[in-house]
Specification:
By secondary structure, the protein is mainly alpha-helical. Helices cover about 80% and strands about 0% of the residues. The protein is flat, with a radius of gyration of 21 Å.
Length: about 200
């Protein structure tokens, strides 16, 4: 079973990488407020750290600047977004391995109901992934000819009715969260109906 053998190893590597990244951003936040001597060792380290992490922190700094908030706080926003993305990425990996294990077991044991159940579960998982990608892409401008345009066309029939019920609050679309919760409940129903759990 891949879920028992590979997933713990992958999750450990991802969490270690997250901790290293968060540590670097916390150091950057400290350096933002202490402004060390640029000619000392700490100052040179601070300069190189800022240079290497700018690409990650800049979008958050731009967002804070739009709201007239101190841009030196951008590493905090970057950390929160990174933790959220890491959590979601681990869930995607977990779901993918769960589906592969389930389909393999269904085929090996000749259980057609398991195969159908895991295929439906996989389709719902792809839909969850697309909604999350759409949620992230709402911060960026894109054309309909890109992959993000495809994601928007696929998720529109599901998200539009929810958006009529709960309109977006500023730039935050809470209706997407509601749809994600409903899809996850539906995934649980699929697992029970097809005798997987």
């Amino acid at each position: 079973m891949l879920l028992r053998t590979i997933y713990p190893f992958i999750s450990q590597i991802v969490i270690i990488a997250l901790l290293v990244f968060v540590t670097l951003l916390v150091l950057r936040l400290i350096f933002n407020y202490t402004d060390p001597n640029p000619f000392g060792k700490i100052g040179r380290f601070s300069y190189h750290l800022k240079k290497r992490t700018d690409q990650f922190v800049y979008p958050a700094a731009r967002l804070l600047a739009n709201f007239r908030v101190d841009t030196r706080l951008a590493p905090i926003i970057t950390i929160l977004i990174t933790v959220l993305l890491t959590f979601f990425a681990l869930n995607v990996i977990h779901n993918m391995l769960f589906i592969i294990d389930g389909l393999t077991a269904g085929i090996a044991q000749g259980k057609a109901n398991w195969i159908i159940g895991f295929i439906l579960y996989a389709i719902l998982s792809v839909l969850v992934l697309f909604i999350f990608i759409r949620f992230l892409s709402s911060w960026f401008v894109f054309t309909r000819n890109t992959f993000l345009g495809f994601v928007q066309r696929v998720t529109d029939p599901i998200l539009r009715p929810a958006q009529r019920l709960i309109p977006p609050i500023g730039m935050f679309d809470i209706s997407a969260m509601l749809v994600l919760i409903l899809i996850q409940l539906l995934q649980g129903v699929v697992l029970r109906v097809f005798g997987i759990y």
